[in-house]
Design a protein that fits this description.
single chain; 173 residues; alpha+beta; Immunoglobulin-like; 2 helices; 39% strand; four-stranded antiparallel sheet; five-stranded antiparallel sheet; 2 domains
């Protein structure tokens, strides 16, 4: 019987180590979940300012544009709006035509966009590149330092698609 005591001690120690490792992993998962919860309370989300489209235009799909939301502007210029819960910092953005594929131009920069804030952009809404199918891409940071990207696709200023996801690409300059 006494020859099994060291073996029993080994298994008890091994079981304690396994429980300790399991506890550390579960604690790390709780920490990550708490960090994500804090981030979601201050997560920005940028889009273009939009409004409901004229019902007749939407039903008739005027200009081959399918959708019920149309981009609004201020003084015939696009307006970015933060619909998220936190401030968007270091905002880089560009517009590009999808009808004539080309590399995006030099991105423009905004220092920040506060929650619920609307900022008029220097891009004119009636410019040729924005008349057909085009997209606007916004890349920005949250106050916690996480990077995000919003991509808004439109056809004759009618919103056709919106994508929001973490930005894993290189920082825009």
């Amino acid at each position: 019987m006494s020859e099994y005591i060291p073996l029993g001690n080994f298994f008890v120690g091994f079981a304690a180590l396994a429980v300790l490792i399991w506890y550390a992993i579960e604690t790390m998962k709780l920490r990550m979940a708490a960090m994500e919860q804090v981030e979601s309370m201050a997560k920005p989300c940028l889009t273009l300012w939009a409004d409901l489209r004229d019902p007749t235009d939407a039903i008739l799909e005027m200009h081959d544009a399918v959708g019920v939301m149309v981009v609004r502007g201020s003084d015939a210029q696009f307006v970015v709006q933060n619909i998220g819960t936190g401030i968007a910092l270091n905002v880089s953005y560009y517009f590009r035509s999808l009808d004539t594929p080309q590399r995006p131009g030099t991105p423009h920069y905004l220092f920040y966009v506060l929650r619920d804030q609307k900022i008029k952009l220097p891009e004119p809404m009636n410019a040729t590149p924005y008349a057909g199918n085009c997209e606007a891409v916004f890349r920005f940071q949250s106050i916690g330092g996480k990077r995000y990207q919003s991509t808004i696709t439109m056809n004759n200023r009618v919103l056709t698609q919106f994508a929001f996801h973490p930005d894993k690409g290189p920082a825009m300059r």
